[in-house]
Amino acid sequence: xxxxxxxxxxxxxxxxxxxxxxxxxxxxxxxxxxxxxxxxxxxxxxxxxxxxxxxxxxxxxxxxxxxxxxxxxxxxxxxxxxxxxxxxxxxxxxxxxxxxxxxxxxxxxxxxxxxxxxxxxxxxxxxxxxxxxxxxxxxxxxxxxxxxxxxxxxxxxxxxxxxxxxxxxxxxxxxxxxxxxxxxxxxxxxxxxxxxxxxxxxxxxxxxxxxxxxxxxxxxxxxxxxxxxxxxxxxxxxxxxxxxxxxxxxxxxxxxxxxxxxxxxxxxxxxxxxxxxxxxxxxx
Length: 284
Prior knowledge:
Blueprint: E1 3-8, H1 13-28, E2 32-37, E3 55-60, H2 62-71, E4 79-83, H3 98-106, E5 111-115, E6 118-123, E7 133-135, E8 138-143, E9 150-156, E10 159-166, E11 168-172, H4 180-183, E12 196-201, E13 211-213, E14 219-224, E15 234-238, E16 241-246, E17 251-256, E18 261-265, H5 271-283
Parallel strand pairs: 1-2, 1-3, 3-4
Antiparallel strand pairs: 5-18, 6-7, 6-17, 8-11, 8-15, 9-10, 9-14, 11-12, 12-13, 14-17, 15-16
């Protein structure tokens, strides 16, 4: 691996200086390095990568990695996160370790992890399907009016599953199990597995729990009005971006994405090691 591309969240002086150091280091070893900013949420644009790009270095936190995964979807190029913020689950490197990591990657001393992604689209009241949008972490449905209970009906492969009275529902990948799903008391799952997690947000019942579903299940979600005027609407977000509105009579369809996110793995650090480190940091 000799040709790299650095992705950052924003174009700040300290980032540019950091990228220049990376570029100089890579070029002295016979490689190339380009640089770009993650497109704005509203643009829904892809990153413009050189054709010879072999690896992507994401400078930022978990959020920058997640957005990069959306913006390079389908390009089949592996990436690795360089943590420049709070301790996260998706960034293996930091400012000090990145140079040894570059040496390892250029020597071919690495492995590739494939992370399952979700894909979702809206279906309007006339049955017209909207654009597919991908998510590495989760697809979340919640009330667009803030703190308001919704009646959410879920079908799996055409079969009725459950009707939740809740503040929302999270559909998470194994990678996303340590994100919003964890905050909603959902289970922590090894990110190398393939499954779909369904976790209700603040369900107004004692028997509503997270459900682990097959990765090839297709989920259809509807909201039913709890008021006579039928004006309720839900907001759908894909990894916190690309927000859409869902109204009674419309559907959200969620399923496994056709492509995966490929992560470069260097260190001999297990999933359990990373979880333990993160949990200890949260306790401090």
